[in-house]
Amino acid sequence: MNRILPTLAVVLVVLFVLSMSFFTVDQRQYAVVFQFSEARRVIKEPGFQFKVPLLQDVRFFDKRIQTIDENVPARVQTIEKMNVKVDSYIKYQIVDVERYYKAVGLDERKAVDRLRNTVNNMLRDEFGKRTVQDVISGKRDEVMDYVRKVADSDAARIGVQVVDVRVKRVELEDSTLVSVYERMQSERKAVASKLRAEGSAEEDRIKADAERQRAVILADAYNIAQQQKGEGDAKAAAIYAEAYGRNPEFYAFYKSLDAYKQSFNKKSDVLVVDPSADFFKYMKNPKGNSK
What we know:
Tetrahydropterin Synthase, Chain A
């Protein structure tokens, strides 16, 4: 019994030492083995690893893509001196854990603050070169791609890769909203005035064209009417001539009757003529002979 207890104690000590000597690296992590606060070994592959117990310590770093989401939107100014609030996020990944540790140590906040400051400064610079329309919709993708490249170049110094930088939302400040609304109202009024002027000019053009077409149509109609009237008069004259040629006496008699009819059309008509005039010859003598 006296021998079993020491043996059991030794076994427990050995197991304890072994448990402190081995550790597991997950596939989602990097591991750095420290000895007296100095990085001695960087482990990038997953699996079981060994360390010297009591002398060495292990710290783990996440190798997955991480997100920095701004809690407070950054305040930037456009080229028109209009203030906007930009809500953005950054996705980054540790790619060189040894450089990362040398740059920021175990304080992840240093890396986060550095990335956030770099991106915000770039946003201020780039948005300051563009209009509100550009930063809201026009050239946002172009701006964000450039900001990501610059931020990635700076992040490489601390062993980090910037995977993506995106703007979630761009909001106009109250003072900017009033200014934008007034400008939009002014622009809409200018467009409306221009359209009204163009409409009025088009109306005048259409009226002038209609009047021109009307004048042409009336002139053509008048010419056709005159031509047809002339042809009718010619035919009538030809008929009259032919009738006169066949029986001049009857023609004269018929014309006289027509003249009588036109002269005595109304009871109130009064005609003062010498009774011996030729006008009454067919009334005196139906044959029209003078006596």
